[in-house]
Amino acid sequence: MSIDATDRRIIAATQAGLPLVAEPYAEVAGWLGLPEAEVIARLGAMRDSGIVRRVALAPNHYALGMQANGMSVWDVADDRAEALGEVVGALSFVSHCYLRPRALPLWPYNLFAMLHGPDRATVEAHRAEVADILGAACARHDILYSTRILKKTGMRLRPEG
Amino acid sequence: MRRAALPPEALDATDRAILNALQDGFPIAHDPFTQAAAPLGLSGAELTERLAHLREIGAVTRFGPFFDAEAMGGAFCLCAMEVPEARFEEVVTLVNAHPEVAHNYERAHRLNMWFVLACETREGIERTAARIERETGLCVLRFPKLREFFIGFRVEA
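Output (structure tokens, whole complex):
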């Protein structure tokens, strides 16, 4: 599904968040000069097509005590990687899970999963749990901890795409 | 964004119930706060007040629609570099100077610099990565997403 200019305006108006008022979609509609029903219908259609993944609250996991994370990387047999990636992504402590190309010989890993926990020991326990799940399908793995944030900017869509 | 943990007394049981419930979704409807508040035993107004407070103290990162940036036409690529320790700060400056570099992390590994390129197009990714290679004289490994898996991540408040 493709999105049109009006969808893009709705995205630009809401990507920082919904206003905390009783009728937030009416408020957004007012900013854009659209009927509320159109904003609701367009957001619903974008959710159905996957352009809106969900409308929800994202907790600040650091504030809630999830202080540690590590990028775990796994060399999983190609014929098993899709199915096992589904299982790993569904774990409650995994925030991102992707298949990516290997870069041999330096980088043999194809499955990336970001693991979170209150401390390093918990992240290591999660890593052991993932290793158990992957079993013999995984030849080797590693985990990369970040030592410094060098840059962090939001990724924003411009109103006129 | 707040990176320090909140003291446990910063949140009461209602705050925790809100944080847990709204991670799963929020209605797209005329009166979504009233609808979302009912199962929590709250009024819509009580819920918006609580959410404003939770946002203020830094317990909430974002509240609203989450968009699939690639479905909207953007292109993204995770990249990694092996940067000699002695050149690290110089290379950070060269890499971060590109507005296409969205985040950049130092990681404990032989590949010690990991960043995400965010561009309007696929060609933009290739162009930027090649430019960084020319400027630094170092190889930029590209790890584009081949498949993204559905995520079950939840933070129990």
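Chain A touches chain B through 79 residues (CB under 8 Å).
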